[in-house]
Amino acid sequence: MEMFCNQCEQAANGTGCNISGVCGKKPEVAVLQDHLLYGLKSLALYADKLGRNAEIDRFTIEGLFTTVTNVDFDPARIGGMIKRCYELKEKAKAAAGVTLSGPVADWKPADDLAGMTAQGEAHGINTQHVNEDIRSIIEILMYGLKGMAAYMDHAMILGRTDDDVMAFFQKALAATTDANLGLMDFVGLSMECGKQNLTVMGLLNTAHTDAYGHPVPTAVQLGTKAGKAILVTGHDLKMLEELLKQTEGKGINIYTHGEMLPAHGYPGLKKYTHLVGNFGGAWQDQAKEFVNFPGAIIFNTNCIQKPSDSYKDRLYTWGLVAWPDVKHVDGWDFSAVINTALALPGFPDNPGQEILTGFGHNAVLGVADKVIAAVKSGAIRHFFLIGGCDGAKSGRNYYTEFAEKLPQDTVILTLACGKYRFNKLDFGDIGGIPRLLDIGQCNDAYSAIQIAVALAGAFECGVNDLPLSMILSWYEQKAVVILLTLFHLGIKNIKLGPSLPAFITPNVLNFLVENFNVGPITTVEADMKAILG
Ligand code: FSO
Ligand code: SF4
């Protein structure tokens, strides 16, 4: 079976995965995901005409997030979503009272998985447009929509939505099927996607802080505490909260993993005394680390990898994450996970290092006077936002080395899982301001933007004129939409690595360089010298 996927930084040979995904995605899953995306476009043609419908909008978000890298590897679940997509399309068609014509509008999936898979082979990304530059921009837009859907999903779980954003999702999905649109139309839609994502990330930020308070600087234990144990990995705070409630008083300690680390900074979560620490590093180390976790493990979002037999029986997925043969928790009852943890040995007491998190915009701007004075006195020469995703490539050592080699009069702001490249190092402080400030998850990019905008206001300049450089690492489609948001805000001179996306053609890259001066990382020495002189 033919597959082609180039949506993430791991794309095989820097061009795309065509035999099997480097992420573990099998051809069957890849073509079913292509099929689901085609169905979502068909649904969008009618949803765009219908206007807001909560059920359809919710499904669109879940469908898009399902196709993000390292989320859903289960053919049966994706097949179920394709069927549901068709039912909703028929419902939207009837409710909108219009009948559109053409292959996308007429889409009807086969009844069985084998048929749906065969149909999916005709809907690969290379069929999106004959012109490779337009195809490249359509891919940017599609990955932007997928990334934005991930953030919207978290916001929706906390009861938030936005009509204008949802109208944009449907409009943009429908637009990708319109043969009359040209390159600049899709450039415009991609920039609009960046703008809409700023709204979504603001929505999510408010949802988090309304539910759990503003993060406060918090020391997180990397050692272990005696007792039964559950490890929570992914990004979803509401799922963690529910698990904390259901495990209270049961002798089970909860540990965060990967992107869940910043959860420790929220007053509404840190109040649970059995949220005891963080275990392990970034997502790509899960296989070797989970083997050593003597409790239950649960994923609430990406990035899941093929589980080894040594921990598969104590592994659970929740929400949109799925792996064939791994137990899935539907809804909010975590008793199966709890019972698994109770039957396992758990940890002895073994205190370890502590690291800091919880420097969201509220905490950083709370000491803005001190920060501004330190910049004015020359005690702080430059800020570096070293953030984004981690991954398996050896070239990612660049980020560790970059952080290590920075002069003592610089401050590092960080977010997302790329921080694990350096967050256990001791960077010291500048007049009481820690040199490493962990803003949070990739989901908290909004907070980083708020900090930059506030600093620009204080210094009466634009964000591009601040002594601030962005050294970003990308992996999957959430990083794509954050980049689109930064472009929408007019932020220039971003350094991006470890490699540029395979879906960007030379012409599209030229466009991005000319307009935003975005460039690939080179060597630590050269990049640092170019910034600091
Ligand atoms: Fe990382 Fe994975 Fe958070 Fe991504 S855990 S790579 S961009 O899902 O979302 O930073
Ligand atoms: Fe390859 Fe990434 Fe696509 Fe997986 S998501 S198949 S690793 S390009």
Strand content: 5-15%
The general outline is globular
Largest sheet report = 6 strands, parallel
Tell me the CATH architecture of the largest domain: Up-down Bundle
SSE-based structural type = alpha/beta
Which ions, cofactors or small ligands are bound in this entry? iron/sulfur/oxygen hybrid cluster, iron/sulfur cluster
How are the strands of the largest sheet arranged?
4-3-2-5-6-7
Radius of gyration from the CA trace? 23 Å
Q: What share of the residues lie within helices?
A: 40-55%
Summarize the structure in words.
There is one protein chain. With 533 residues, this protein is α/β, with parallel strands linked by helices. It has 19 helices and 16 strands. It has helices at residues 27-50, 54-66, 75-96, 113-120, 132-157, 163-175, 183-212, 237-247, 267-270, 286-290, 309-312, 335-343, 361-366, 368-377, 397-405, 445-458, 477-488, 506-516, 524-532; strands spanning 218-221, 228-233, 252-257, 275-278, 296-299, 315-318, 327-329, 354-357, 382-388, 410-415, 429-430, 433-434, 436-440, 468-473, 495-497, 519-520. Strands 4-3-2-5-6-7 form a 6-stranded parallel sheet, with helices on one face. Strands 13-10-9-14-15-16 form a 6-stranded parallel sheet. Strand 9, helix 15 and strand 10 form a beta-alpha-beta unit. The protein starts with 26 loop residues before the first helix and ends with a helix. The mean pLDDT is 97. Iron/sulfur/oxygen hybrid cluster binds next to helix 17.
